[in-house]
Amino acid sequence: MPTGFGRLWTAQTVSSLGDGVTHAALPLLALTLTRDPMALAVVTAAGTLPWLLFGVLGGALVDRWDRRRTMWVTDAARTALLATPAAAAALDALSIPLLAAVAFLLGLGGLFFDTAATAYLPGLLGRDPALLERANSRLRGAQTVASGFAGPPAGSALLALGRAVPLLADALSFLLSALLVRSLPALPRPVPEARASLLGQARAGASYVFRDRVLLGLALRPAVGNVAFLAVETVLALFAHDRLGIHAYGFGLLLTAEATGGLLGAGIASRLGRRLGTGTALTCTAAVEGLAILGLAAAPNPYVAALALAACGAGMGATMVLGPSLRQTIVPARLMGRVASTSRMLAMCAAPLGAFLGGWLATAYDLRTPLYAAAALLLAMTAVTASMTSNRRVEAALQAAAQAAAPDIPAPREPARRSAPDPV
Asked: Where is this region: Disordered (predicted)?
């Protein structure tokens, strides 16, 4: 791995830890101000709105800008942004509108940083598929540990020291990330496209996803998956309490089992891809997710439920390494930001539909119905996308990308590891 990857990995891990702190602290801060469920929902929803409103346009901007500069400037801006609620907390001037605005702007910063990081990584690694899988495995694993295991408990603990403390901790994480990203090697920009409007470039990026069978299959998995997973998440706490007899502490352990499975799945993703082929591995991980949710719906006790959630997490973890790695390998650098943001936007738009579906099915039928519906949806999605991301299609896409890479991508730092032909 190039030495620069270590700095990028550290920067994203530190930033993910801060995200986990804020993810726990913002709702708790809101809870100190109001008990109105709608007001609390506004703070939670505000962080997702940037992806729904500006997802594709943000990707088009990232494709116009220098990716490294976009990342460190965004993190520097988020450092300054968090100073406002921290000062308001210290002065006892916090309010729900302020927290919602902060959540929205942090989400907007996340849109630009995540999209730029996704677009920057292939250039850093010379678009080598094996290196990309290893890199995404490490990034995904570190993100799971930092934002899933360490961040939320740290956020709750820091809040006990003072309302401004978790916000300042997150600000520090963004500052460290900005400094690390600033030290990364500068990469040449992709060959610019013919001058077009921002909206036209955004539309071209979205069209590229929908016209390509492999990319469309990769985008459908998280989109349909989010409908299913949010349907489950909406009723999971109630299902665990009423059907499995799990209370608050046990529910936390149940979620930990899922996160542990996700960490395992991210770790073995590359091995699965080599053993089965990327296309077949993606189909198998999607099937594991569906079957695991089916097992969760039928679980007779908490232990079976924990195993089912761990299996589901493993499938999700592997998918979230293999899918993005393949996308980063086959998409031209000039379109990477738009393609990544289009896929992410589809997934984010699907989430509210899943939450509504889960609530409606639980109300109209019973608590197991959303889980059975989610399993059926995941298995149907697996069947539909299996041919779209088959090994044959994936290999054809990789070969086409290798042939087109020479004029589009700068030479990597380690020629011995390259999979693409030399530039002509």
From this structure: 405-424
How far is the C-alpha of 34 from the C-alpha of 38, rounded, in Å? 10
Cα separation, 25 vs 166, whole angstroms: 7
Helix (H, G, I), strand (E, B) or coil at 247: coil
Structure tokens at 343: 């896929």
Domain 3-183 belongs to what architecture? Up-down Bundle (1.20)
Tens-digit pLDDT string for the chain (424 aa) = 787 899 999 999 998 888 888 877 887 788 788 877 677 767 877 887 888 888 889 999 999 899 999 999 999 999 999 999 999 988 889 998 999 999 899 989 999 999 999 999 998 998 888 899 999 999 988 888 887 777 777 887 888 888 899 899 999 999 999 999 999 998 877 666 656 788 888 888 899 999 999 999 999 999 999 899 988 887 887 888 888 888 766 776 787 888 889 889 999 999 999 999 999 999 999 999 999 999 999 999 999 999 999 999 999 999 999 999 999 999 998 899 999 999 988 888 887 788 888 889 988 898 899 999 999 999 999 999 999 999 999 999 999 988 876 554 444 444 443 333 433 3
CATH 1.20.1250.20-classified regions of the chain: 3-183, 203-408
Burial tier of 306 (Cβ tally within 10 Å: 0-12, 13-18, 19+)? buried
* Cα–Cα distance for residue pair 342/424, rounded to 1 Å: 32
Which CATH architecture describes the domain 203-408?
Up-down Bundle (1.20)
Distance between alpha carbon 376 and the CA centroid of its chain, in Å? 23
Q: How far from 296 is each of 99, 257, 370, CA to CA, in Å?
A: 36, 13, 11
Q: How far apart are CA 168 and CA 18, in angstroms?
A: 9
Q: How many C-beta atoms lie closer than 10 Å to residue 1's C-beta?
A: 15
Tokens of 304: 């079976």
Q: Which residue has the tokens 């939450």?
A: 355
Could you say which DSSP state residue 412 is in? Answer: P
Place of tokens 């850093």: 124
Give the single-character DSSP code of 304. Answer: H
Distance CA 320, CA 138 (A): 11
- 3-class secondary-structure state, position 47: coil
Closest Cα to residue 359, out of 274, 233, 253?
233
- Tokens at 161, concatenated: 């020291």
299 backbone φψ class: left, alpha, beta (φ>0; ψ -120 to 50) = beta
| Residue 292, both tokens | 């695991």
Element (H, E) at 213: helix 213-242
